[in-house]
Design brief:
Layout lengths: L9 H18 L22 H4 L6 E3 L4 E3 L7 E2 L11 E2 L1 H6 L15 E3 L2 E3 L1
Antiparallel strand pairs: 1-2, 1-4, 2-3, 5-6
Length: 122
């Protein structure tokens, strides 16, 4: 008796169906497990960022790396530290008025001139 099978055994069909269902469920992502998108990247600053951040009324400021001073209507005079990364520029006028520590003040050198009222006079 030679018997030819035209259909696979029932248990083989069940195993194949289960494998397909398991693989479909395994590849489906759980929305709760999806990582949150990264929030806005931290702003990047450079040597010119202070020009749009620091107001014209500010005379003493930090450009994110160097300390600077300017007279109204004149260019700013800044220290010349080499900086690979700049922080957020900030006005130092209020800090200079309330802080009497010499380290917080601008240091005058041969680029700057004499000191008057805690600021270098050009």
């Amino acid at each position: 008796m030679t018997a030819t099978r035209s259909m696979p055994p029932l248990h083989l069909l069940i195993v194949i169906t289960m494998a397909i269902l398991v693989s479909a469920c395994a590849t489906k992502q759980d929305p709760a497990a999806t990582p949150e998108p990264a929030s806005a990247a931290a702003p990047e600053y450079d040597m010119n960022s202070w020009k749009t951040i620091i107001g014209d009324e500010c005379r003493s400021f930090n450009d994110g790396c160097n300390n600077c001073f300017r007279e109204p209507g004149k260019m700013a005079a800044c220290t010349r530290k080499a900086c690979f990364t700049y922080q957020q520029p900030r006005c130092l006028d209020e800090e200079a008025a309330t802080d009497s520590a010499p380290a917080a003040r601008l240091s005058c050198n041969h680029f700057c001139g004499e000191r008057a009222n805690g600021h270098c006079v050009i």
